[in-house]
Amino acid sequence: MYSYLLPEFMIERLENRCIRCRVCERQCANKVHEYDGELDKLFSTEENCVGCQRCVVLCPTNALYVRPRVSDYRPNSSWTRDKMQNLKKQAETGGVILTGSGNDKPYRIYWDHLVLNASQVTNPSIDPLREPMELKTFLGRKPDTLKINFDEGEVKIESELHPNVPINTPIVFSAMSYGAISYQAYKSLAIAAKEFGTLFNTGEGGLPVHMRKEFGNNTIVQCASGRFGVDPEYLNSARIIEIKIGQGAKPGIGGHLPGEKVSDDIAQTRMIPRGTDALSPAPQHDIYSIEDLSMLIYALKEATNYEKPVSVKIAAVHNVAAIASGIVRAGADIVAIDGLRGGTGAAPLATRDNVGIPLELALAAVDKRLRQEGIRHKCSILAAGGIRCSADVIKAIALGADAVYVGTAALVAMGCTLCHKCYTGKCNWGICTQDPYLTKRLNPEISSKKLINLLKGWSHEIQEMLGGMGINAIESLRGNREHLRGVGLEEWELNVLGVKGAGE
Amino acid sequence: MLVQKYFQSERFVPDKDMDACGLFGVMNISGKRFGGEMAINAIKNMKVRGSGLGGGFAIYGLYPDYKDYYALHIMYQNKNLNAKRRVEAFLKEHFYMVYDEEIPTNPDITLFSPPIVWRYFVAPQKKNEELAVPDDEYVVSRVMYLNTNVDDAYVFSSGKDVGVFKGVGFPEEIADYFMLDRLYQGYIWTVHSRFPTNTPGWWGGAHPFNILDWTVVHNGEISSYGTNRRFLEMHNYYCTLFTDTEVLAYAVDLLMRRQGLPIEVVSKIFAPPMWDAIEHMKESDQKLYTTLRMTYAPLLMNGPFTVIIAHHDEMIGLTDRIRLRPITAGAKEDFVFLSSEEAAIRAVCPDLELAWTPPGGEPVVVRLNSKDHLLSVNKSI
Ligand code: SF4
Ligand code: SF4
Fold first, then answer.
1. Does ipTM surpass 0.85 in this model?
2. What residues does ligand 1 touch, defined as CB less than 6 Å away?
3. pTM of the full predicted structure?
4. B225 at the A interface (CB within 8 A)?
5. Which domains occur in chain B, in start order?
6. Does domain A137-501 have CATH number 3.30.429.10?
7. How many other CB atoms are there within 10 angstroms of residue A169's CB atom?
8. Contact: B303, A471; criterion CB under 8 Å
9. B226: helix, coil or strand?
10. So where are chain A's domains?
């Protein structure tokens, strides 16, 4: 425990409501609440509280309030409380400050400065309750042209086609590994993806053998720098294979799953000894250049008989457009771009908060570059990192994405309250933990329903907005920036986005 | 590419024009040439569909004496003779010119700021490595060059045995101005009347839109314009007019001329069946339609449209996938009509034998010496 730190949260217990049921004590993995039998009273150790609000919502009499503690050092715009507290922690340990989840710094969120179009008079809006409103999307490389042959009324396609994967809505669950999240959370994602006809991503932690038959068709499997769980059977069980080069929350660095989290099952899935740290190196050690990437892409295609699209996921960094173009030329069928606000199970705070660029700008730049080079159709673009609602999805598509990855949003749907303590293994919501006492709080039957509802609700909203624009198939919005306008953006930002200002 | 070449950011690409319109087309399927009376009177009958800010005609079978030469109709705005000199120098360098003249006009008709309109009959003059380039390709790239590089010059049409006459005014005024009813005959006439909602008309912006033998007249507002435009740019088509019609014309050129797809397939790219419908098709069709939609998703023309596409031997009518802008077809003996409104057909052909309204996405294909147009009758509504 650190000394001399200000508690981040304040806990108020309304004594006249508290019935000493001790729910809060049992629910809090951070050991904040403690019952004193002699005094018949509950006490709190506020320093431990992470503000996850689990106790608050489970308290049967609403006796609890957990609020950010306002008491602070002398106000200072430069030396904020954050900065000072982190420094003090570091002074005691000499370590790297860790955090979880996504960047919470006030970088501009471009989604909130983009507005959508709607039809008036010259063009009718389309009512999704009366007319079909199509969201089906194909992920993969499209041919340059189609050669079609006509043989006595029979039309035949001559061109060679590349594998493509249809999804019923342009929303895919992003990479969250078994190990980083609990089996229950992982399975919930799998069930929801299957039920709705979309995909979930295994992350770099492998796919448990017993899930392959049932969920393989809805799985994107990752091949990351640690190569955990990768073998031909794993690759062939999936629908799409993704090479993970980088992650928006921690561009340029690897990963670390502490040995305590590596249980029997995880050890088996990752193909490592039980209890050992699972270390993912920063780069893939067989990819030091674009030709190396190409070799891995084709090795994976060979291993799967060219039946599966190969995706390459990168963090959005300064030269993202040129990098993406290289990736497509190296043979990738999908490029996934993970922006500055992408989530993580654990990352150094300094990296998470300072490295990379916002998704919106990266996405616009990549889409534009690929079109300029005439290769946009050779890949699908998956946009990830900070997609919070259906409006973000539709704006991402108008900026050029084929579909989006959602991670944090899915976790929130399952209960996550963004306490940013995923790296501690003490997630009170049973998501980012392997402690059976905590994980059993998550019932995949129930939480998968919530995820399905998320997909359903967002899809309905997307259909509503599409219809409003007079569009009845999502592909007609892709890259269609004419339907976006910027509000409150600088000239250079509009230029990068390729979007006119409102009223222009 | 467009963005790099002309604009610092796509943000500066002009907004597209929006307009509503009236369309009419008539074809003699045995190839007999006839005058402009029906086309002119039919479009007059749909006067409220235009606002006098643009009208035009495309005529096939127009120049039988010069049918082996590309007929270039070129306008010079503001009577800019310097532009004319530049164009003609360019033409001399890249083509053999067999004949040229000013297109005769009626001095008694006054229209808004008429340009000089000239016609040239030319054959490609290819040098060395250009010899391998097909004639059509050669002509298209030269036309694109003129349209994007010479201020005040604009090529109305560039096909063989076909010509476009258009300008700012009601179509019947344009017809009078160019004396279409007196001077010309053809076996296909298409006509367009325009109701722009956001731009003052200029002569080059009137329709029909032409590229080689293809002409397009269109009514509607394509909500997928931005997606379509970007895809076409990848195939080196640069929009200079920023109209839906232009996008449709380039898409037609790409799919039909360059990729050799027949209109029956192209119409399923522009106005594809719903996924729900595809699911219920027989397996081979399922595969075909899924592949078409997947590959050509960026060429789906979303939102309301009616279009009449014509080239030699063919006139095609098509409406959007959910038929937000219907089209009506009619037939009598060797004449087949396509129109925004049935009344206009009946106005010029009172004893019509057949009139029908095809469903969304179902083309009416009128072909020389064939009865293919009747294929859509059974499916009509
Ligand atoms: S950590 Fe969560 S459960 Fe524990 S006291 Fe704080 S808010 Fe309550
Ligand atoms: S997953 Fe759990 S630990 Fe991580 S932010 Fe959400 S609630 Fe906190």
1. yes
2. A 27-28, 30, 32-33, 49-55, 66, 428
3. 0.93
4. yes
5. 21-376 (3.60.20.10)
6. no
7. 23
8. yes
9. helix
10. 9-95, 137-501
